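Researcher: Here's a chain I'd like modeled. Treat it as a single chain, no partners, no ligands.
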Amino acid sequence: MKTLAQDLWTAPLPDPDAPGRDLSERLNGLSYDDALAEAVTLVRMALPLDLRALQARWPGSIDLARLSVEAENDAEPLARAVERANRRRAALGWAYWSLDDPDRALAALARLDPASPSVSGDMAARAEIHILLDLPADIPPGPQAARLSLLQSWRREGASALARRVGLEAPALPAAPGLWSWLIDTFVAERDFDSAGAAYAQLAARHPDHPATRSQRIRLALEQGRTAEARHLLDAQGETDAPWRWSAQRHVQHMRCLLDTLSAGPQPDYAPVLDHATRALRLFARNRVLQGLHLQARELADDWGQLSKDLATHPDPRMAARSLLRLGLPEAALARLPLADPALPDDALRTRLRRAEALLRAGRPDAAAQALGPAPVAAPMAAEHGYWLAEIAAATRDLTLARDTLSRALDTSPTRMGLRLSAARVAFLSGDAEGAKAQLDAFRSLKTAELGADPGDDLRDRIVADALSATPGPAQAALGFARAIPGFTPLSHSPIPPRVAHYWEGPRSSAVERSLAAWGALYPQRLFDAKSARDWLATNTALAPLFDRLPDPATRADLFRLALLTTEGGIFVDLDEYPRADIADWLDHARLVMVIEEGHATIANNFLAAEPGLPFFATLRDRVAASLHATDTPYPWWHSGPAQITQDAAKIAGAPGIRFLTQPDYETRIATNLPFPHKRSAAHWR
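Model: Modeled as a single isolated chain. Structure tokens:
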């Protein structure tokens, strides 16, 4: 099979049926173990084979029968083999579980024969399935008892309870590598790197040379940004020139290293990641993690138009919907999600979460709240539900609901950084700057534990510090927009020119080209780069020398957009904004159109539309220029972007012809802030 793996790594097989035919022709001359190994490999590669012939040749084989579940979604051969042998009912229970049939999984394990040689493992599987269904569970004694008890605590009480138990009980817990690997995985999922590190220390002390210890060391190095260490450990395993021999896990870890290494450069080319992901997926065609990485690599390196078409038939609807959301296509994402929820509780919730996210990104927060449904029983899943419920509530400015929801989620999952950032934002919008700072401090502590270094200030820290300041600034202006959306008084005419301008430096990815084409289909269009923008500034303003000394593309784009809008008006929009519908009516009877961001209620600068010669932009341009002259290290969001625009926008709120859009209003037509490939690179301003 090594030859087959090498051939498949090199290219798709010209005749995918050939390996299965060959196995059938040699069947009578093969031992059971050899036949099973070949069949497992072919199923893993999703290559056709005659499983019925193998099962007829060895009718008592549970392992051969189980392959029908993976290859054909058919558990009947396995059910017959298990009943005949009166053993390994756990395999049948988990098979039904994988087929989204928890009732049959429970039934398969309901009556266990104490005389069965597999009864201990079957009892453990029954207990685990009960726990995962949030049902009462009797945990049997045995090697799995400690893990099952901890799993039960995590689901019932959350991550904080799990961390407390492990901290108290660690010396007495079994040394089993599987237990400690599960704990590390769970703590990483909860973003609790202190507890994950402590669990790894226990694993390494008890099993210094175990493969699980090496694997978890690589895992933590990747999660914590120690890419060079992860790469060294991966290469130390050998066979760097024979990737067709690697495990699926090694392929995953290699690609994560490759992504991090490429992203550290200024203009990364992600084609090698896509190439590796494509080859690895031929070897492990059913591996969900590799499927996800393959989609991620396509988002970074492939044509977004073709990708969006291919996602319509992707075998995993939830995975496809997530990718479609990243492409800025929430309606297409909704179309991929089934109307009926899966039967497994966690999968049902994740489907509802994705549906709610798609509706929120389509500018429909009320529908998103309805799609989200009630909170689940399991604490970790309730925290995920709470995050999205709070996001939806914040979008509609139901800040009381958002705060209460986040408080409950943080009680059980205090290390989830997304919850901390949401809580800080909601506290800020509620006028509680001290509470916002406390949440940001907690986030900083968690991020420091992850990275091993202080992450430094970003826009959140800046605006909260401004809210705590005695001097009126962007924060006070933003809080005014958070409290009330200014009304619109239409003009008798429509002075905004129907044309669009963009700024872009560097290579243009497929994502950029797609946005360019979409905007160009709506309006006459101009694309500026550093040279053409500088030439325009030199001709029309005195700002070219300042432009020349600005350190990054984002700040240069900010200065240029203000100058261009002052003189020429029209629409200026970033290329990570993707229009899904016409916006002509936004411009009607308006002299200025701005968007109030969902984040901190500041005014976005990724979309601005104005009449030429508007004093608002002339004043703003001059003030931003003065701010940039005064600092050698400008932070774009603060010195030249939304923070500055917000201050001046507050002064003209309510004036005739000034239209303010909420972010939900905006997202009914335009997908915003899409995760373009360049945002992963070291050159991105954030």
